[in-house]
Amino acid sequence: MARILIIDDERSIRNTLKEVLEYENFDVDEAADGIEGLEKFKQNAYQLVFCDIKMPRMDGIEVLSEMGKVNPDIPVIMISGHGNIETAVEATKLGAFDFLPKPPDLNRLLITVRNALDKQHLVKETRVLKQKVSKTQEILGNSQAISRIKETIDRVAPTDARILVTGENGTGKELVARWIHEKSLRNKGPLIEVNCAAIPSELIESELFGHEKGSFTSAIKQRIGKFEQANGGTLFLDEIGDMPLAAQAKVLRALQENKITRVGDSKDVPVDVRVVAATNKDLLKEIDAGNFRLDLYHRLSVIIIHVPSLNQRRDDIALLAERFLADVAKDYNMPEKQFDPSALEALSQYNWTGNIRELRNVVERLAILGGNTITSDDVAQFTNPTLERSSSKKLIHDIESDSSLDYLIEGFQNLQEFKDYLEKEFIRSKLRAFSWNIAKTAEEIGMQRSHLYTKVEKYGLKRAE
Amino acid sequence: MSLVSFAYLEEISGGDKDFQKEIVNTFLEEINPDLSALQQHADAGNWIEMGKMAHKVKAPIGMLCGEEMKDKVLFLEKNAKAMTSTDQLPAKVTEFLSMMQQVIAELKAAFPA
Fold this sequence. Notes:
heterodimer; A: alpha/beta; Rossmann fold; Helicase, Ruva Protein, domain 3; five-stranded parallel β-sheet; 21 helices; globular; B: mainly alpha; Four Helix Bundle (Hemerythrin (Met), subunit A); 5 helices; elongated
């Protein structure tokens, strides 16, 4: 039952609204002037407010403005005997949900209440859903290294300083970048991510800076680049160490001058973007090798945050594993499982070359394939690459002797189509397993990065799949 | 000719007589001090304040009175706030207050205590 506050100095109007709304099973509270109304608004949780405009002590427009500061999500319906367009426009400009003339028409009153509550419900639902789908997960861990990173984020996020996040693959550099954005003054703006390693060198300029229609063969329409998309927010340049030198020069200019030029255009476009970059490479070595510009490095690395490998923060492994296990159970709608202490110990001792990403994958595997209580034997089986390979062999053997393979084959007339199908599914599965890290996936499946990129394009594979 | 109208009250109350009586009683309890204040401001030629009082009584009048009373109070409010037709206002106020006494009597008759 929604709780509604009526603020009006006219008792007859308050009573009328109260009677009507209580008849509709709403819980109604009332206030005789703006100051009393604002106090009640601050102290109680309402889903809707009716507020008169002309009132002694504090008028309705001021009350509306103050309530907006306290909780802007609560719809406010202004009511007034004035009933003129100007007042209605002024109120809605200030954030009122709607305006009703006094005395309010019953049907319009009830429709407006229903619409306002629907909107309030949607706002709430949207927020919950956003939180659910938000990629900004908590940075888990109590180790000294992680505590230091959290402290650094808190200190540097509100500034506009450029940040370089370093660390091995799978350590959570992207998560650090997300938290820098979330805690920055730009958090109402967009966070745009670019994986520099996943974009072919000939397309990266267009991807970053956009292009004008006709600027090159496949430029069939104008495209807004990532810098412009990130205007007012943060641009996260992941795997910056893989960015081609030509693009590095243009990024440098964008950082120096705060403006970009779309490919095929001569006009400068001003951009207000904070850049956070990340790399798993030693950029100083890359500079020595002539693969990375020193001047760009200095521009990007005002603050450097190094994310330690999982092996360097073993104290956090149990905490991470338990959280991942709960997450997997929730994601797959499975009953919750638990780790035997020996399993947590075994996970803590394992050599995590793939870091948190690998731990997440292993826990997912354990959740699906292990028993209700995951033991150290389960851990040994599902983390040991040798055993995994023998499992793969066993799987292939199973498939060979399984009628499902015949069934699959029967679905294809043409060998090439069958091969393409298998290739597509294989690549899709591997990309998922490596969280769409193109470089890592290519390395693992023994394929050149550019070749893998071509396959992704060919099969129309998308990250959301 | 009756100056009151129960059409709005009927609609908003869904025919609930207790609710209607409560609204009318609230009106009767509050209207006299407001009308007195309106008269005092009019007597003092304080048209802006008189306009505010006219605005205040306009909503309850809109709930319980017919179009004639609504027009009267709207005339007072608009002209007092805009300081227009001020020469006509004293007579209009007297007429309005007299008609309001009829409204009060009609309401009391319709909803005896």
